[in-house]
Amino acid sequence: MKTILSLGLFVLGLHLFGQSPKVPNATIAQMVESYKADARGPYKDIRWFCTDGSIRQPKDPCPKEIGPGVQHARYKDAVTALGQSNHIYLGQILAYTDKVEFWDAMNNHSRLKQYQLDKYLRAIDDGWINAKGQYYRGAIQAEDEEAWGIKFYSWLLTNDLNVRQHYFLIRQSLKDVPHNGDDNVAQKMRSESKVISDLFTQFMDLRVKIHSQPEESDIQKVQAFKQRYAQQLNPNLQKDLDQLIATMKAFFKPIDLAGLSKRTPLINNTAFGQALQSYIARNAARQDVAQLVTETAQLLYDCREAVLAEPRGAARLQLLDLSLKLEEIVFKNAPEWQAKSVEELLNKICYLGLATTGAGYTELNEWAQLDMTLKPSASGTMTLGSLTSFLENARRQVEWSSAMVKAKYQAIVDVYTGFEPKAYGFIDDKIRGSVALYLGLSVSELGDFIAKESQLTNKVLTVPNQSGFRGLNPGYAFGELVVVSGSPDEIEVASHKLYIFQRPPADLKPVAGIATVSEGNMVSHVQLLARNLGIPNAALSDDNLKSLLPFNGQKVFYAVSNKGNVIMKLEKDMTEEERLLFAKTERKEEKIAVPIEQIRLKETKILNLREVDASDSGQLCGPKAANLGQLKKMFPERVVEGLVIPFGIFRTHMDQTMPRQNQSYWSFLNAMFKTTEAMRTKNIDEETVEKYQLDQLAILRTAIKQMPLKDSFLTELENDFKAILGSDLGSVPVFLRSDTNMEDLKDFTGAGLNLTLFNVVDKTKIIDGIKDVWASPYTERSFKWRQKYLLNPENVFPSILVIPSVDVDYSGVLITKGISNGNDDDLTVAFSRGAGGAVDGQSAETYLIKHDGGYQFLAPAREPQFNRLPVTGGTEKKSASFEQFILNTQNINEIRALAKTIRATLAKETHSDYDGAYDVELGFKDNVLWLFQIRPFVENKKALSSSYLESITPKIETQKAIALSTQL
Per residue in 736-761, pLDDT tens? Predict the structure, then answer.
């Protein structure tokens, strides 16, 4: 009781004294544990809440003359205060909650999602914070909660915008928010099986089966399990198994199709209502499971369109409840449909994809871009190439569907995982409870068939579902395997290890190889670095990641071929050829030198962006400023004005005396490199050398951030800022972009390694930002990449590009090459909403724009938030919805025309013999295109031409005819 009291006083104290610092996770975790042991859970007492606003004692009901009122618990003061300080709402009572606050649109619907997450935690953890409080009589009145739910959805669903933008979230919430007496039986079945396996590990295999591919026959397996282990099961476990068996029987009980129309009295006279009646009549006998799944999938899709067309909120609620029942029919019957031929499997995938769209996991316009129709020849065959294209589209839909769940819920799951680790299973539970689960299983089956026919077989240790692996960047590596199932942001990576991530961290330090469940996008900084440096990189499924967990910590060989097949094997299984790939001399030979022969450090005046061009790259400034200056000459209306702070200004400031060192900043830096060379000649181990370097760089970095700027430079900055940008320093928001001489070298891109400051307005912040940018090449991440791949990493000189902010509606990257197909004549485009799009690993809207005039939609954006750039500086986070594409046809045509001009004129304008692809950063504001950067697109030619990689790349006969009647 003391613990509960002290926690309450701590949180309440913050509230009473007007403070609002966030309560730390450790304290919230203690609160959760205390509430589990409290007979009242998160509640302090029960009261009557009357219609006139008065509150009465539990034995003193509201008088009839002021209305009936409702009775429920009040939250503990600490719980209320936690909502105010952290926006975390524990044990929400709906009858206690304003519907607008519960929808919580200003906070990306956090409270609604927390309610769902709370339901999940209660299901898998014996009531969670209500472990004892669930027996607190009168705390929550089920009928009041259900009545509130009906009112909430009647209000919410009358808004067309809510339904269009948040169809998936609203539909998912119906599984958890009481409104019609139904329970989420599928989740109940999964949570009960999890509880049993947590208590009795021998049940784990059955739990996995129930979670991954539940079938009615599993009931008999659970019954047999109970008999087999009868002597080892205590009474509580026997009771839990009986409850699970009862839940499974309820789940697999056939749905009364005839009763479906009783759920939708408001729409029975509409066109969709008539289609529902016809569906019931055709499928009442349920003789043909393939027909039942096919027709239910179509009706589920039509139901979504009917919801959008229906104006009445109450009718929409009935349609959405029907939609959940239709998905349940598909979910229960899909495993019974055993496709016997290739054609039948293709049809099954097509209709499961249709159902997945109907259920909201894919947007309607995204489904329209997926070409899932069969195009057999007159002889009933399809080429291997056409089948592979079908597989790629189907695989994309599986990835998009999982990404939809993560986009909607990952942020709040991450918050709760900070104090309740069990929350991390929520997303997996959502995916496994969806029809997308069976779409994924069927796509894996097709992948296995095509891999066999094309001999493009992955060989990844002994894990199942090998077709879930998909190579992104070719390369090979050897090292310890690290499997990271949680957030990657706190992981300290090592350059000699291989990492499996849920998603790639935006500031990835050097690693030997990576694979990710969420690949981000093809042109993020992480992907470009991996491609440039020949780091093997692959995508995999959630299940693949879990299958790799037993191999965590073991040394493995990992390779991705030029065609994307993936090999991973234990060290003991490596061939002699594979061992020879890692001769000690190899890395040294790969290193390249930063050219400094022509650098002009005597130029110490600020430059107008209009005064520089590509010929100044590496001499006066880095390639960002030089190339943007070049673009300003070529596309004056598409590029903003700007200032360039050249290398020479940085270098003169580095000649100042460094505090407490009795030498200049530059001398300190060079002394460090001399010492490290001496350490290496004495054979001091590399780990000790690296620690010394990083410690010294930390000292230097701190000193640079505090470095005094010369008065002459500050005066010039103020004058030139006003002359070039048209306003005083401190009145125009600008970007400060680090621009070093070690970027965009012939064989090293350096993409995203140094600092860019977004939308800075304040004069002091701009001046401090200059020093922060100068210090950024000496961060651990930036230095480690340079140290690993450059011969002279000490010769890095930062310039700074200062350009006014453009608050673009959407932004992204253009690569003047087809990355997915290797075609030099095609284009790859990735865009995200708001500023800074695509480059930081966001799940971006991606296209392959073809040279023949068409384009292929490769991936939708799945970022739940995006950046806007207010004139007051900084960034504002806005919530995104996914029902509309980011790019329109006009945008795509403008990008195509831009690429054509760049290809035709840039090399000639810059007097360069470069004939490779370009990497262009751009954005659109009110449909006007703005250019922000252009650089060579650097690929790792060694990886692409490696004889070993060539040897593991099968020659695929894409024109090989496959009879659709082929038996599986």
Answer: 998 887 764 454 444 455 678 889 99
Both 371 and 314 in one domain: the answer is no
Q: Which residue, among 682, 658, 681, has the nearest Cα to 670 in the 3D structure?
A: 658
Q: Is residue 54 part of a domain?
A: yes
In a domain, residue 150? The reply is yes
What range does the domain containing 556 cover?
A: 459-580
Residues 6+ apart with CB under 8 A from 199: 237, 240
- b (16+ CB within 10 A) / e for 188-222: bbbbbbbbbbeebeebeebbebbbeebeeebbeeb
Residue pair 320/943 in contact by the 8 Å Cβ criterion = no
820 vs 830: CA distance, rounded Å:
12
- H or E stretch at 827: strand 827-833
Residue 365 has pLDDT above 50, yes or no: yes
Residues 561 and 648 in one domain: no
Q: What is the DSSP letter of 498?
A: E
- Classify residue 630: in a domain, yes or no: yes
| Confidence class for position 787, pLDDT limits 50, 70, 90 | low
Cβ atoms of residues 816 and 808 within 8 Å: no
Q: Does 369 lie in the same domain as 494?
A: no
What angle separates helix 235-252 from helix 218-228, to the nearest 10 degrees? 170
Q: Beta-carbon neighbour count of residue 775 at 10 Å?
A: 22
With a CB cutoff of 8 Å and minimum separation 6, the contacts of 708 are 656
Which domain CATH number covers 735? 3.30.1490.20
pLDDT tens digits for range 566-587: 999 999 999 999 998 887 544 4
The strand pair at 459-460 and 566-570 is best described as: parallel
